[in-house]
Structure formats: structure tokens, C-alpha cells
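## retry 2 of 3
previous attempt timed out at serialization; input unchanged, resubmitting
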Amino acid sequence: MRICSLLPSATEMVFALGMGDSLVGVTHECDYPPETSRITRVTTSNIPEGLPSDEIDRMVSSNLDSQGTLYELNQPLLEELAPDLILTQRLCDVCAVAYDKVQEIAQGLSSHPRVVNLEPHGLEDILDNIRTVGSLLHVPEKAEQVIASAHERIAAIQSKTKMLTSRPRVFCMEWVNPPYCGGHWMSKMVEIAGGVDELANPERPSYRIEWNRILEFAPEVMVLTCCGFKLPRVVEEAMTLTRFEHLHELPAIRNNRVYATNGSDYFSRPGPRIVDSLEILAHLIHPELFPAPPLADAFTTVDLATVATR
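## retry succeeded, writing output
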């Protein structure tokens, strides 16, 4: 089977199932595992690199309104690669080539590939997607092994947090400027990790949120999970919080419990490493219960207390 993955998460699933050699095409954002570097890139982004986050937000809205997609899919290259299967999604047009565009291009390919939509709304949906891909690739037993391992790790966290008598208020921030709440699986992950995020949008997309709502919620822990950004860029984004009014009033700021994470690799990538994301979150919310995962590029504390009180 010749597979084209239009999702970094799907690329990771294929490799986790031991079928990486079947991938003939991936996106420009597929960067894990390292073996993906040898695979042909079939997409490009219409959003220039290096823009400030508020400008990215404006361009995303403008491009989706005018073009319906943020990405270009190389049809001549796909024709040359002749995939049998294309893995994509229609959950979020910000995260991948628009589903309708993929379908349109696929119908014109001489290889007549099957297009499969992976659309996880919650944590269990992500694991079900692994099962789906395992079935498509004829390795269902391997898929069940991957899923069982994930469930075991999730249960290990739940066993420690289910009896907690106190759960801190946690705000997982998917975008800083302008502020966006967490969506889809983030609410459940915070719950499993021993916190409560009343600003999240369970099993629904993230959305722009008023700063006053964040002030009213008064989070005790803030976790920046900026979609598409690696850790160094999220640390930069954290500093833009200092422009917001009354920042010093937030308990998370006063108690130095603001954390930047590698949102691109973990929290906004619904693949096998979503359980790594959960373990990161559990440590950040309850460091007294969970040791830091050995993931050097995954998270760091951002001290905003001094800056916020100047």
C-alpha cells in the first residue's frame, strides 16, 4: 500500500503501527519521528513564517474566508506518487488542507486513492483513530497493542487523581494573542490530570475568549499550548501576556505557575503522543504526584510574576 498522510498525527500513527515504509507523501509539518525527513512533502502553507500571533490570527481568518484553505496541495506531485490511501481530516481547516479540496484533487488522480477522514473530538476518539488506521493498514493487532499501552498509561494517572479532594483551576490557552481557550480533548485531559478547566470547550473547537472571563475564572495554573508552535516560540508568546490588564491578579501569575509547552508536537497533535501530553499536564498540575516526564523539548516554567507587578 502507498500512503499519503496529510496530517502530522496520522503520520505518527502509521509509524507507531510499524508501517512507516508505506508512506510516500507527507505534509510540510510532519516532523516526527525523524524518519519522516526522507519522505516527499506534498503541501505548503499560505501563511508566511515569522509573523506575530495577532497577524497570524488575522491572516488565518482572511484566507479561510477568501480561499477556504490555508494550505496548497501539490496535485502533479501526488499524481507522480500514485497513493492508494490518503489520510486527512475535516475537523479543523486551520490544521490541514481543507477536506473538500483533498476530495476534489483525489478524484482527479489516476491511482484513484481512497480518502479517509480522521476526525477526533475527544481523547478516546484519538485512540479510535489509531484503531481505524490499523484496520486500513491490515495491522489491527498492532493497533490494539498501541491502544492498550495508552490506556494503561492513562489509568496510571487516573488512579492517582480520582481520589483528590482539591482540584486546581487550570486554564489551557491554545492561543495567546488574541486569547483562545482549549478545545476538543483538552477539557478531559485536564480532568484526568487532576484539574478543572471551566473555560475549555469539551469535544468542540477552541474559540476566542474574552480576557475578562479569564480574570473571573482566576486560574491557579496556566498552560500555554499554542497550536502549531514549538516550545521556544510559546515562551515568546507567554511574554505577550504582560500586555494584558490586571495580569498580576491571577493566582497562576502570583504563584509562578505559568507553563509554556511544545503545543505543536504534543497538545495540538492528536496522535500517539497525546498520552505524553497528558503526562506533561499531570506533572504541571500536580508535581507532588507526578515526576517530570523525560521530554526536554516539551515544557518550561515562565516567570511572569516580576514583570506583571512592575
